[in-house]
Design brief:
160 residues; alpha+beta; Glutaredoxin; two-stranded antiparallel ribbon
């Protein structure tokens, strides 16, 4: 497993399959981190769809997307489930951000957030418009997560 990227380091680039729900329309695509240069990106790694803490976290971020839109920042949820699972999860909870499928956990491993037993450690990375890690929150057990307001403060700081 790779080391967790340090603040100030270039964020590891990746491409993953994604699911984006807009109204009733589910769009499947591939998203590449480096293609979002010029925008801040919040990467929210979470262990699993439809689990209690993950559901609260992803719903909270989805409900506060306007905060991130106002900062010209994109929010991506990343977990090991496949796109079918992501679609059910997004439809069940009305999630408005892309959910990326890291089925083999390769991207989570690149970011140093895999863990035996739970698979993926709940983690949030703020990546600035130049592709540099500006803030990170990595949990050991994964029962807590930063709220959107806390993340937004770090997104705003990354833009100055």
């Amino acid at each position: 497993m790779a080391k967790i990227p340090d603040v100030g380091a270039e964020a590891p680039d990746f491409t993953l399959p994604s699911l984006m729900l807009t109204g009733d329309v589910a769009t499947r695509d591939e998203l590449t981190l480096s293609k979002l240069r010029g925008h801040a990106v919040v990467l929210a790694f979470y262990p699993g769809d439809e689990t209690p803490v993950c559901t609260r976290q992803m719903c909270a971020y989805s409900n506060d997307l306007a905060v991130f839109d106002g900062l010209d920042a994109k929010v991506w949820g990343i977990s090991p489930q496949d796109l079918d699972s992501h679609e059910r999860f997004a439809r069940h909870h009305g999630l408005g951000m892309p959910l990326l499928a890291d089925v083999d956990r390769a991207v989570a491993a690149t970011y140093g957030v895999t863990m035996l037993g739970i698979g993926v450690r709940r983690s949030v990375f703020v990546i600035d418009a130049d592709g540099v890690v500006r803030w990170r929150h990595v949990t050991m057990v994964g029962l807590t997560y930063p709220d959107a307001a806390t993340i937004a403060v770090h997104v705003a700081a990354a833009q100055t």
